[in-house]
Design goal:
mainly alpha; YggX-like; 3 helices; globular
Length: 99
Amino acid sequence: MARTVQCIKLGREAEGLEKPPLKGPLGQRVFDNVSKQAWNMWLEHSKMLINEYRLDLTSEHGQQIWYTEMDKFFFGEGSAAPPDFVSQGSSGGSEPHSK
């Protein structure tokens, strides 16, 4: 039977992760409070952060930014996209219509 958690991101009960996704206290906190669905949302968001900020997750500096953004994504004000990030789905504004 799947384990459920009260997901802090979704604001409802949902299927939990099978094991802590990271070592240490933050990994345990995520395991206790984040659903599988919300974790997948974070992974998608973090790909954008890694690409936009060109994070090197093998460096201590890159890992620190990644962990800080993850903490904000789940437990803080949210992790925003970089200021000049434009998602591939957006057109960059509305264009005038001609008649």
